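Sample pair:
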Amino acid sequence: MAVFQKYKTSRLVLALAVFNATADPALTVGEDYIAAGETPVYVRTKNATINLQVEQLDRELDDATLGFKEQLLVGHHFTIECEVEIAGRGTATTPAAYAGLIQMAAFDQDISSGTHVDHTQLDDDSWIDGTIYFYAAGRSHKLLNAQVELGWNVSNGAVGVFPLTITGVYGGVAADGFPSPTFNQAKPVKVGNQYTTFTLDGVEYAMVNFTGNQNNEVNYTDLPGYEGVSIDDIAPEGEIEILAPAHGDFDPFAIVRSETQPLLPVSVVHGTTAGNIVTISNPQIQILGVGYGDFEGKRTFVMPFGGIGKTAIRTA
């Protein structure tokens, strides 16, 4: 008889290692980077779930019986859905603990400034992949060649988060104890007037919500001679909600109706203390429409947008 174990649902740990082009000995893209000697970074997640994705291949055989027919179960790969709090590392010049996940979502990493760390959306297929070890229920679940779909949710009165969907090749499940992780993530601050500044076209507005998603098309592919995960398209979209200002100060209807279809810079800066400041920006977004909303009885503008420029994330 199997012995029941009292595994706790809240005991989850995510460890990652990204491809290191300078590793010695050299790494092979898609291998288990942690097993190959790369030091894992532990990331504190929220609301994490892991699922084994399986495709059912119906053989469509003729026989003498009715009922459900045995399926071929193929295309096995893992997906993890989770959130990571929008916060720094505590040191302005050191990448955040979750920086590897941003890179796996088709961003680069630039630490050359000496004052901050920049991640800018890539479009040249040069982004890196990673290895994920996800510890849950007395087991380690391994994702290889993993890539990420990344979003952001900066909502008034809440803790800002990056929603993530991680897709990786099935690397095995084994009995494993929990590691003793050190989470090098600063304590987040509430989204609000004290810590958060939102600007659109260089003008500060009273922001209610600023949400977006890179809309990375992440595909698991299984072909003769190749199994892996790829990002095959990137199409950032999002939504802005602000308290409606005076008509003379901001007219989103004129922006949408303009023949020139102006492209506007957008930015949210969250945090005020060095080491715990995160900026999400795009130099060119297109406002795709405008509607009215309500926040605590006050009229708001709700504006969907498309990211024409490249999304940038800075920790400082």
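The longest strand covers residues 139-155.
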